[in-house]
Amino acid sequence: MFHRHILPELQAELQQTPAIALLGPRQVGKTTLAWEAAKSVPSVYLDLESERDRAKLAQPELYLSGHLDKLVILDEVHRAPALFPVLRGLIDQARRAGHHAGRYLLLGSASLDLLQQSGETLAGRIAYLELGTLTVLETGPTLATPLWLRGGFPESLNAPSDSRSLRWRHNFIRTYLERDVPQFGPRIAADTLRRFWTMLAHHQGGLLNMAQLARNMGLDIKTVHSYIDLLCDLLLVRRLPAWHANLGKRLVKSPKIYVRDSGLVHGLLDIETTEQLLSHMVVGASWEGFVIENLLGCASPNAQAHFYRSSGGAEVDLLLTWPNGTMWAIEIKRSLSPKVERGFHAACSDLSPTRKLVVYPGDEAFPLGSDILAMPLGTLCAELAAMHAG
User: CA of 33: how far to CAs of 15, 320, 342, in Å?
Assistant: First the structure.
């Protein structure tokens, strides 16, 4: 079992908040983490994809009121939206009985649906945490290359061979398309959505151009927009917004689009081995997306992520900004001898970031100039995680 760095935060929330929603895509390890967090307290686990467990909740208030002194873990809770008003009443009932925190741990595979359902009825009673795929900080630097190739889903990473890992990801994609997607959105033909998802993998790290995607798919822009929204809500795709500021310059405003897990990028493109990946045209964009997901997976949710690009060629791959005004400009290079290009210097001149960093796949940090530092991915992930924990 990998140690997930979000575990202490989850345990702390269980000591302070009546309900916690732990969100993340399927097979990312939410259930395993929930059991780990709950092993020291009396708990009840209900899988709402199980008919037997759903039957226990035929009269949810009656069943759950018998467990007010326990932590109740509700897996795939988006399948039972009618539970949320019941949970609100039970949380208030438990408070009157002296149980103020750690009542319900809600596990969900989508963001928008669960946030809307719970937000309408559990305001002030619920905290939200997102569990992403494994990061290099959780697997260790020796697994960085397999993690990049296979992605951060534990079963994919732990497969006995690259071919078995690729087969697992193919099955994962197929299951999502045929079973899971229809639960969350209007009926979409699996073949159509797979072609769309694959097109996004080919376009990894590119600017989101709805009109072009619509033309390539033979769809209208509204439909393409709904597909993007759905994949983002399922925590499978990320829209990285462009930085907007009144700098007197023409700035790119379209977001960048990424398939969040590098293993799924490679699965959609049928890339099985590291050798195939290194010779594929997606290799640079894949590495960029892998680095971004690792950094955001370790950073505090308070850190806002953007990219920066002007019409004059100034560009930063990732801008991290914190509420106190701190800004880090991060360039991503897949070279053991990284070089900073003119566009990064120009962007830093525009933005005046607090730190200027270059992430590269080496083992040690070293200066690239008087104020620019090259850092290994794992080192920067550890620094961001320490800031978050502090």
Answer: 16, 27, 44
pTM, entire model: 0.93
Domain 7-130 carries which CATH code? 3.40.50.300
Q: Where are the domains of the chain?
A: 7-130, 136-389
The domain defined by 136-389 folds into: Arc Repressor Mutant, subunit A (1.10.10)
Amino acid at 142: T
Rounded to 10°, the helix 210-217/221-233 angle is 100
pLDDT per residue rounded down to tens, the chain (390 residues): 788 999 999 999 999 999 999 999 999 999 999 999 998 889 999 999 899 999 999 899 899 988 888 999 999 887 787 888 888 888 888 888 777 788 999 998 876 565 666 666 787 888 999 999 999 999 998 899 999 999 999 999 999 999 999 999 999 999 988 887 877 766 778 888 999 999 999 999 999 999 999 999 999 999 999 899 989 988 999 999 999 876 667 888 999 999 999 999 999 999 999 999 999 999 999 999 999 999 999 999 999 999 999 988 899 999 999 999 999 999 999 999 999 999 999 999 999 999 999 999 999 999 998 899 999 999 999 999 999 887
